[in-house]
Amino acid sequence: MPGAVPVTVEQLEMAMLREQAGFVGTLDAQTGVVLRPEAAGRITRVFVSAGDRISAGDPIMELTADRSQAEVSAALAGISAARSSRDTAQARLDSLVAEQPRLEAELELQTLQLERTQRLVTAGALAQQQLDEVERDRNVAIASLEAAKKQIVAAQANVTETEFLLEQAQAQANAIREDLLDRTVTAPIGGIVGDIPVKLGDYVEINSPLTSITQNDTLDLEIAIPTEQANDIQIGMPIEIPNFGIDGLPATATIGFVAPRSNVDTQTVLATAEVVNDSGRLQDDQRVDVRVILDERSGLLVPATAVTRLGGQTFVYVVAEAPSETEQAADSAQQVAQLRPVTLGAMQDNSFQVTDGLANREVIVTSGLLNLQDGTPIVVQPE
Hints:
Blueprint: E1 5-11, E2 15-35, E3 41-46, E4 53-54, E5 59-63, H1 69-122, H2 128-181, E6 184-186, E7 191-193, E8 203-204, E9 211-226, E10 238-241, E11 251-258, E12 268-276, E13 287-303, E14 307-310, E15 313-321, H3 327-330, E16 335-341, E17 343-348, E18 351-356, E19 363-367, E20 376-380
Parallel strand pairs: 1-20
Antiparallel strand pairs: 1-19, 2-9, 2-13, 3-5, 3-8, 4-7, 5-6, 7-9, 9-12, 10-11, 10-13, 11-12, 13-18, 14-15, 15-16, 16-20, 17-18
């Protein structure tokens, strides 16, 4: 029809209306570490960059070693020498212990010989000189056995000392090896590498911060609720963090805790939730806008582009049929834009909730409103 205004339209459908409240929350990673060297040194290699995702055990940095490989070799040589000394001392002890039974048998034999010679001398069968010789031999056997016992005690002490020296050499070598190993800083957990405040060539002291590793897979969300709104917040209420979910959708969670008392200084009540970071876009210590869904019910939504404001009131153009004067005209009824007052509720995304003035399945005009008045003929254009 000539003079008809081209417009686009939309048929209203029942939707889920939400009563929600907006707050600001802070995210906190449940797991994170700050990496520090266990020994001082100069940074010779950096294996990662800030923002890298790493696994537990991955190398992070390498530091110069105060100990050289030559010291390790010298320490190993010291172990070998100490072990050789210990083995020599043990062999000496074993030899002396093995010799002791022979000396004891020799003393026993000399004692028996002395007793027989004493009986024969008394009987006049042997001369006193032979008794003196046998007694001398027995005294030699006694002295040899006593000397052997003292040598065994000394050899045992020598074995103990050489074993102690061997343990010392092994401990020193282990310390040097550990010192070398401590120069490679590895990741104790998997996660995201944080800021790296040091660079290649820097000298770092023990416990100097090298970087941090944070696990952002699951984060704790803390929301400070003003005390005047605290009674509206309940455990189990859904939460949305706009634009931080997969494909730009909201990240979702559920309130798991509401503090039983308010903070005197801030006059807020703490509410917390656990957020699964499926999109990977949420970060530790990040401040985010949070929507708490207080209530949900069925109702109608109209796009913000369909709303017209006149004289402080809100209106929507509804598609209607123009009155026809003849039966022939009724067969080709013209559509017109009918101005209808509406009562709107809260805004939800890019639409307004409708509390009065529209019904389900009605068709409303969504574009071309500036060229319309009540009753203006329209022609519907495809979107």
